[in-house]
Each structure stands twice: as C-alpha cells, then as structure tokens.
Amino acid sequence: MTAPHLSERDGTQVEALIADRYLDGLLAAGDRRATDAPADAALDPDVREAARVLRAALVRVHPSFRFEERLAGRLADLAAAQAAPALTSGGGQVLAFPSAAQPVDRAAVDLASGPLPARRPLIVGGAITSAAISIVGVAWVAWRASRPGSSRAPGVMGRAARTAHARRAAAAFTGLGGPA
Amino acid sequence: MVRPVFGRAERAAEPVVVLDRDRRLVEAARRDPAQFDALYRKYLAQVYAFALYELADHHAAEDATERTFLRALAALPRFREQAQPEDGPEASTFRVWLFRIARNVIANERRTRRRQPAESLDAALGAGLAIADGTDIEAQAVTRDEAAHALRALRALPDDRRRALLLRFVDEMSTAEIAEVLDRSEGAVRVLIHRGLAGVARELGRDRGRDRGAASGHGRGSPS
After folding, report:
1. Which residue of B has its CA nearest to A35?
2. In Å, how far is B14's CA from the nearest CA of chain A?
3. Contact A16 B131 (CB under 8 A)
C-alpha cells in the first residue's frame, strides 16, 4: 500500500468521524426537542443538509394496533407453550437407566451402599430362577393332570389302612377278638 | 473491599455498571416467557419501522416483524449478554441481538420478494402511524418534496449504506451498535454512513438543479 492511499483512507476516516459527531449532535437535538440544528463548519454543507432532510423524512412508524395485538396474542401462545414443558419437568428428574458400561451417578440415584452393577446380575438371576421354577411347576401340574388313572389308583398306605380296618370289623362281629 | 475502621466497615465506592439496560426485562422473560411482552412492546415500532423502510411494503414489514419477534422469543434462552462497560449505560445488547435477527429475516424477505414489485415507500408509510417526536419541528422546515427526494435517494443506495443510515436515523443506534448489527467495524460503519449521506446529498442537489432548471425554463417560456 502506498502513502497516497494511506492518506486518502485517513482523510475518509476523518470526514466520516466528523459526520458521525455531527449526527450525534443532530439526533441529540431532536431528543431535546431543540429547534436549532448543530452547526459544524468542518462538515460539507451538502452532507449536513442531507442529514437534516433525512432526519426529518425518516420518521419512526408504528404498525397498526390490530397487528400489534394479534402478534402479542401469538407471542403469548408461544410463551405458554414454552412454559408448559418447564412446569411439567420442574417436579421430577429423569434419570437414565444405569448400564454396566456407564458409571453410576450415586448422587442422582441416591443409593445407600453397594455398587449397582454388582446387584444387577443378582436381580436378573433371581428373575430367571423364579421364572424357571414357575415353568417347572406348571409342567408338573400339567403332567399330573394328564395321567388318567393317577387319582383312582390306590396307594400302598391306603391299601394297608383298608385291610387293617376290615380285620378289626370281622373280629368284633365274631367275638373272637382275634387269635388267642 | 471492606476494611474495618474504628469498629465500622468502610465500604469503598464501587461503580455500578449496568451493562444492558434491558437486563431486568430479559431476565424476567427468561423466568416466565409471558414477560417477553414488555420487550415486544418496547421494540415493536423500531423493528417494524426498520422493516418498513427496508421492504417498502407494509404487509411484508408486518410479516418480517412477526417472524423477528417469534424467533427472538424462541431463541431467548440462548441469548447471552455481551455488553462491555465502555459501551456506556445506554448499551443494550438485547436490542442489537434483536436487530441481528431482524436483519436476517428482512434479508430473506427481500430475496423472496425481489421478483415482486414493491409498493412505493410513500404508500407503505401511509399504512403505518407516524410517531410524533422532536423531529416535527424540523419536519415543518423540510418540504414534502425534499423528504420524498431524500427517500428516493435512500432507496437507490447500496444495501449496506442504506441499512446503516436507517439504523442511525430511524432507530437512533450508536455507531457501535450498528457495527454489531451489521457485523462491521465501527470505522467501516462511519464510512458507510458518510458515503450514504454524500450519496443522498448528490441526489438532492441534482433534484434541486432540475427543479431550478424547470422553473427557469417556465420563466423563459412564459409570456411576459
């Protein structure tokens, strides 16, 4: 970059800074409702005049009140939708189910003692054992029910009891009371 | 720093720097999104006016304004205050953040509406309600023709110069705020504004010359 370029750029920056200061004064005068526009001899009069005209021409414009209230309603709906999940999630905390690969967050889970990964196979093993016992029990009941003569066939003890009962009845009837 | 002096604590004077003048409103809206209404009412006219001057169509301006505020409310939890003490007590990073959203929304709107003819800015401005302020006194001194010429000249400017002028005059932003909104340095924004003003001045001078020429032409042509 050459020296003339630098000076030209500096000159532009200085003019821009002067214009900026002038605008600060012009806008502040508008805020104060002052009738006198600031005068800055260092600024090009045409630029000054353009700023004055733009200041008057560029008024702030308000949208219609109907639009304002309609948009306010839409924002209120969106706000309610945003607030709803916050309210529902405020009462509890969702905890991820701990896995063997991930360390357990003791503070969140609040376990008194014992590592959770060590308990988990025990629980699973118990459930498997319980299920296996249930299946065996069901199979045994089914097997018993499927045998047709099983309930009618007398057992050894039943036969012995019936024989003893018949002998006592015969002895009483004959008055012998059994062998002497 | 608290230092005990004769049994009492002497409190050194610490300057209280309010970094964002909207901090309380923003915090309230973060706690309860329904409180965003206060920020909406505060900046509605500024955003709408910026959109209206940029798009020259009050329907498009309403659409852009609506999208801007809906996006702002949805993204409010992600807003981070970035004001610096040197920005002064009037700095509002929320306003800058809001106008960055508006700038993007309006740029999209301009792209989609490029093929559609825009209504005249005069007609568009007639659809809104001009807010009376201190400029009324000056407005009396500026003729309607001059204002119309200035608006035409403004619309003929390159986008970045026009935006910088609008944010400076309509929304009364500081150069630092405009720099944040437009993603430029402060020096670059000053140059944009100066060149924009020079462009408007050239157009106004050309119009005046044309008017004088027309008037003198009438004078020469008129019967004595």
Report:
1. B137
2. 29
3. no
Provide, as residue numbers in chain B, all residues whose Cβ is less than 8 Å from the Cβ of A34: 134
Instruction: Give chain B positions within 8 Å (CB) of A12.
Output: 191, 194
Candidates 1.10.10.60, 1.10.10.10, 2.40.50.140, 3.40.50.300; correct CATH number of B135-224? Answer: 1.10.10.10
**pLDDT tens, A126-150?**
566 777 778 888 888 788 777 655 5
Alpha carbon distance B186, B181 (integer Å): 11
Q: Is A87 on the interface with B (CB under 8 A)?
A: no
Residue in chain A lying closest to B171 (CA): A60
Q: Which fold has domain B17-131?
A: Rna Polymerase Sigma Factor; Chain: A (1.10.1740)
The partner residue sitting opposite A56, judged by closest CB among B48, B139, B197, is B139
| Candidate from A138-152, B36-50, B98-112, B183-197 with smallest mean pLDDT | A138-152
Domain boundaries, chain B: 17-131, 135-224
Sign of the torsion angle spanned by Cα atoms B86, B91, B92, B95: negative
pLDDT tens digit string along A61-91? 899 999 999 999 999 999 998 877 655 555 4
Host H or E run for residue A145: helix A116-146
- Between the CA of residue A84 and those of A78, A95, B67, what are the distances in Å? 10, 20, 22
State both tokens at A57: 């021409």
A84 touches chain B (CB under 8 A): no
User: Which of these, A91, A85, A24, lies nearest to A51 by C-alpha position?
Assistant: A24
The pTM for the full model equals 0.64
**ipTM of this predicted structure:** 0.75
Mutate to test the interface with A, among B67, B197, B202 (most CBs of A within 10 A): B197
Give the separation between CA A167 and CA A173, rounded to whole angstroms.
10
Nearest to A79 by CA among B32, B192, B182, B217: B32
- CA of B38 vs chain A CAs: smallest distance (Å): 10
First to last CA, chain B: 88
What are residue B2's DSSP bridge partners?
B11
Cβ neighbours of A51 (radius 10 Å) = 27
Report the C-alpha gap between B200 and B211 in whole angstroms. 16
